[in-house]
Amino acid sequence: MHDRLEKIKNSTEEFLKNATELKGIEELKVKVLGKKGELTEMLKSMGSLPKEERPAMGQLVNDVRIFIEEKFDYYTRNLSKKAREMQIKAEKIDVSIPGKKFEIGSKHPMTIVIDELKNIFIGMGYSIAEGPEVETNYYNFEALNVPENHPAKDEQDTFYTTCGHVLRTQTSPVQVRIMEKGELPIKIIAPGKVYRSDELDPTHSPVFHQLEGLVVDEGITMGDLKGALEVFAKELFGDETKVRFRPHYFPFTEPSAEMDATCFACKGSGCRVCKDSGWIELLGCGMVHPNVLEMSGIDSKKYSGFAFGMGLERVAMQRYGITDIRLLYENDIRFLKNF
Ligand code: DAH
Fold first, then answer.
1. What distance in Å separates the CA atoms of residue 249 and residue 234, rounded to the nearest whole number?
2. Residue 256 forms beta bridges with which residues?
3. Rounded to a whole number, what is the distance in angstroms from the first to the last CA of the chain?
4. Residue among 121, 172, 254, 285 to mutate when testing ligand 1 (max atoms within 8 A of CB)
5. Would you say 231 and 259 are in contact if contact means Cβ atoms under 8 Å apart?
């Protein structure tokens, strides 16, 4: 028994001296001092010793237990301290290291223009409407009075999905979606992306932005159209701006027109921005065709309306003197930083 005690004492101390993890120490403690531990078992087996040997042996086992317990305490404390020191070292923060730089972006020129136009129209009492970019043939063409064999439906200039939808070629289908709701009067604008199968070049892009407008109420006339769009042009280009309307054709309006505004850069005398004409072509417009009202469930005897649509890239390009539309989509930081 003496030998066994000596062995337990030595091997335990040896282990503790070399221990690098608290977990190992815990495990050994259970193995030696636990309920079924080696030392505990020895205490239990005292009963088998001759009576007169028991007190001395009992004393000895107890001394060893105390010795071992102290060792466990000592090495546990020692190792915890070391672990804490290492943790502190690892978590040390060097406050003198320069911080990470976060580049702050700026608004994209298209966003600036769209926000400005929205503000102008909101100020004139319009609300903002939205529609899907993946449209049905019905909303993009049919409901807008575009006949089945109209060239605008050509696969040359329209993206079709394999399941027969179209990427909207204009924001005009939003007009139909709003009218179908039947909540009158209507006074909305709908800015958004449109798609056409055009080659990318300095003035064309297969995706670009338009802004649609629609006003429907009882007694709306061409006079309302002209008044509203003239106010808009003055808000956009300044009070001295004049507008002119040229007759045009759109399938969904009758009569239809294109509106020009005097050039904001030269005030009408002719310059590079307006290609020496003094005028800038701004938008298409017209009185909503009775067929279009009726197809959307609006009584064209009672109600009338006007609509307009404009390309937004051109507005941004003229405003900022951008000569290549591709710059608007390339996300080159050197370009975008200028706005
Ligand atoms: N949707 C037309 C286009 O893409 C633009 C347009 C013209 C919209 C006249 C209108 C409008 O609402 O009345 O060329």
1. 25
2. 248, 286
3. 90
4. 172
5. no
Residue type present at position 1: M
Type and span of the H or E element at 247? strand 243-250
Give the tens place of pLDDT for each residue, 91-128.
Answer: 998 889 998 888 888 899 999 999 999 999 999 999 99
- Listing DSSP states for 286-323 in one string gives EEEPHHHHHHTT--TTTEEEEEEEEEHHHHHHHHHT--
Residue nearest to atom 4 of ligand 1 (CA): 170
CA-nearest of 190, 11, 55, 16 to 118 is 190
As a whole number, the mean pLDDT across the chain is 93
Per the CB < 8 A criterion, the answer to whether 296 and 172 are in contact is no
In short, whether 313's Cβ falls inside 6 Å of ligand 1 is no
pLDDT (tens digit, 9 = 90+) per residue, 321-334?
Answer: 999 999 999 999 89
253 lines ligand 1 (CB under 6 A): yes
**CA distances from residue 273 to 75, 223, 334 in whole angstroms, order as listed:** 85, 29, 23
Quickly count: other Cβ atoms within 10 Å of residue 232's Cβ: 26
248 beta partners:
256
Residue 279 has what DSSP assignment?
E
309 CB under 6 A from ligand 1?
Answer: yes
Residue keyed to tokens 């390339």: 330
Take residue 113 and report the two structure tokens written for it. Answer: 């223009």
Ligand 1 proximity of 285 Cβ (cutoff 6 Å): yes
C-beta of 109 in contact with ligand 1 (< 6 A): no
Judge if the beta carbon of residue 284 lies within 6 A of ligand 1. yes
Residues 155, 157, 163, 164: what is their CA dihedral angle, to the nearest 10 degrees? -80
**C-alpha separations of 186 from 122, 172, 213, 233, 300 in Å:** 13, 14, 10, 21, 14
How far apart (Å, rounded) are the C-alpha atoms in residues 77 and 81?
6
- Please list, in sequence order, all residues whose beta carbon lies within 8 angstroms of the beta carbon of residue 142, skipping any fewer than 6 positions away: 148, 295
How far apart are the C-alpha atoms of 316 and 339, rounded to whole Å?
11
Cβ 205 vs Cβ 313: under 8 Å: yes
